[in-house]
Amino acid sequence: MPLGAVHVDHQLQPDSAHWSERCRALCQELDIPFELHRVEARPGPGESPEAAAREARYRALREWLQPDHCLVTAHHEDDQAETLLLQLLRGSGPRGLAGMPAVSVFGPGWLCRPLLEVTRAQLLEWARNRDLDWIEDPSNADRHYDRNFLRHEILPRLQARWPGVKRALARAARHQADAASLQVDLAISDLLQVGGRGPATLSVAALLHYTPPRRRNLLRYWLHGLGLLMPSEAVLEQIEQSVLGARADTMPRVHWPGGEVRRYRDDLYAMPPLPVPPAQRQGWDGGDVNIPAAAGRLEVMPTPGQGLAREALAGRRLQLGFRVGGERLAPAGRGHHHSLKHLFQERGIPPWERDRVPLVYCDDELVAVAGLWLAEGWQARGEQPGLVLQWSRLPG
């Protein structure tokens, strides 16, 4: 694996361009390939400068890293102690209190921190003994930042009283990492037992057999696996009370920034916040189409003898629409018209999904509900060219 260096310029300090050139010159002197990435790291409303800079930096590094390559950073034992204290003050659980792992998956490759058992003082001594020089970021002395406040004000006092405090905190982080790993193992085992009827759903009745701590552990793991932002402790409590504790004939919903949990019958669903589907029909050319307003994608697969008869659609005005109420359809093979509401209930499709399934109209006649039903008389038969419609959720 070739050796290379990357520098991220956050553009937050007046001299940051000079620092970048210093890194480039050093790499040229050592004959190491060098890449510079400039990022926009100014915080958004309500975002801390530290968090904004960290997110911008790691986003750039993930994009730079090649598949199966390893990014090596110089995080040390003092950094680990500071991280543990910050997470403790935020009320984090074992996952947060585990601190920084020595090796972890990172983008398409790996992130390695080989110096987590080496102190800052040891690194400084090593560098000075070799007459190395470096540039110190002046923001490291700014005690308005939480990490710097801990570094300059709190940890020295703790160390004066307990000289081994940094090593003890690093050891505590390892213990928490073990506990977090056991929680994951338990959640994986539990997830196999509480799956609902639909994909990626949970059975409410099965969940209620677990103790609240075990249930919350499983919910966190489930939500994380779905790629949703983790809700706060208060939101998890609201899910417990308002969703799991609701009557089976209600359809409660709990939402937080980046996600929401809903219940239909015995199934628990989680998803990104759903957009409002379009109110008006839109023209359709009969091909694949993404519909962001309905959070899904319609795919059309030519299939002889299946789906909508292509010949029946030729030269006709095609449109896609969504439920507004009162629609009726005579599904192929059933012979009688039914309300879409009745058909959806019969299939056990949750109400919020019903409003986001495309309806196919041909000259204003409802001829198909994508992925579910075709109207009698519009299906391909024998070897007739047909169009099979498949509706799927776009990734959140």
UniProtKB/TrEMBL annotation:
Signal peptide: none annotated. Transmembrane segments: none annotated. GO terms for molecular function: ATP binding; tRNA(Ile)-lysidine synthase activity. It is an enzyme of class 6 (ligase). SUPFAM superfamilies: Adenine nucleotide alpha hydrolases-like (SSF52402), MesJ substrate recognition domain-like (SSF82829), PheT/TilS domain (SSF56037). InterPro entries: Lysidine-tRNA-synth_C (IPR012796), Rossmann-like_a/b/a_fold (IPR014729), TilS/TtcA_N (IPR011063), tRNA_Ile_lys_synt (IPR012094), tRNA_Ile_lys_synt_N (IPR012795), tRNA_Ile_lys_synt_subst-bd (IPR015262). It holds the Pfam family ATP_bind_3. SMART domains: TilS_C. Its main location: cytoplasm. GO terms for biological process: tRNA modification. Keywords: ATP-binding, Cytoplasm, Ligase, Nucleotide-binding, tRNA processing. It is found in: Cytoplasm. GO terms for cellular component: cytoplasm. Residues 318-391 form the Lysidine-tRNA(Ile) synthetase C-terminal domain. Its EC number is 6.3.4.19. Gene3D superfamilies: 1.20.59.20, HUPs. Ligates lysine onto the cytidine present at position 34 of the AUA codon-specific tRNA(Ile) that contains the anticodon CAU, in an ATP-dependent manner. Cytidine is converted to lysidine, thus changing the amino acid specificity of the tRNA from methionine to isoleucine. Belongs to the tRNA(Ile)-lysidine synthase family. This is tRNA(Ile)-lysidine synthase. It comes from Thiohalobacter thiocyanaticus.
